[in-house]
From TrEMBL:
Residues 8-19 have a biased composition (Low complexity). This is DUF883 domain-containing protein. It comes from Uliginosibacterium paludis. Residues 1-28 are annotated as: Disordered.
Length: 101
């Protein structure tokens, strides 16, 4: 049941011919926009992926350094227990004096 209304045709879905054209133009414009933006999105994704890998690698380096430092401290405390206790007491005293200010 199509009827003419001011020069436009209504389809069975209730949309006029000009409405279909407007939707088609909007869809075509959206497709063109996606085609233009896609390379930039790919470039950003690639850059972020590389940055993520660099951060992960850096974090692994920090973790290795932390483990080496902890092992070094553990060895030092084991080899010099009295000196370690004296240093800890002195550090505690200095920190408590600074906190009182």
């Amino acid at each position: 049941m199509a009827s003419e209304d001011q020069g436009t045709m209504k389809s069975s879905s209730g949309m006029t011919g000009t409405s279909h054209e407007a939707v088609d133009r909007a869809a075509a414009g959206a497709h063109q926009l996606v085609d233009k933006v896609a390379p930039a999105v790919d470039k950003v994704q690639s850059t972020l992926s590389g940055a993520s890998e660099a951060v992960s690698s850096g974090m692994a380096g920090f973790e290795d350094a932390r483990q080496r430092w902890m092992e070094s401290c553990r060895t030092c405390v084991t080899q010099h227990p009295l000196t370690s206790i004296a240093l800890a007491a002195a550090l505690g005293y200095v920190l408590s004096c600074l906190r009182r200010r």
